[in-house]
Amino acid sequence: MPALTIPAEYLRASRDFERFLADLKAISLLATHNQCYAMTRAVLRTFRSHLETPQALRFADALPPVLRAIFVEAWDPAVPATPFPDRRALHAEVLAERRDHNTASDTAIADVAAALRRNVDAAAFDAVLATLPPAAGDFWRACPR
After folding, report:
1. pTM for the complete prediction?
2. Is the Cβ–Cβ distance between 64 and 13 less than 8 Å?
3. Staple partner for 136: which of 15, 113, 123, 132, CB 3.0–4.6 Å?
4. Residue 45's Cα: distance from chain center in Å?
5. 75, 47 in Cβ contact below 8 A?
6. Which residues fall within 8 angstroms of residue 129, CB to CB, at 6 or more apart?
7. How far apart are CA 126 and CA 124, in angstroms?
8. Is the CB of residue 70 less than 8 Å from the CB of residue 138?
9. Alpha helices in the chain (DSSP H)
């Protein structure tokens, strides 16, 4: 049986995640990579909470490995998805994540969306978004910067 080659995306996962954090730091003007990580985690969890499990798994497959891991971390798929609310309510959900230690910017979703788009295969990402409810696509497209 021939050896299985490690996918390149796994070999460069840490480097790619560092690049994502650097992009997000420049976009959001947050002070540290730790703050950028926390904001990313809150945005991804907020988004995930509004997807059914099969939808969330399709979306996760469009993410680079470390962001994919953050997206599914501590997820209980038995918790039912809720409909996407308006942008203001979505931002409030982001802020509610780790409420006492949250450093999310006022444009957290747009900031993470902009950094994410710099670090994913755009065609694959858009193809996945096209399979999700329109509000899911709006979540990542609406960038009021």
Report:
1. 0.93
2. yes
3. 132
4. 8
5. no
6. 59, 136, 137, 140, 141
7. 6
8. no
9. 8-11, 13-28, 33-48, 53-61, 65-72, 87-96, 108-118, 122-129, 134-141
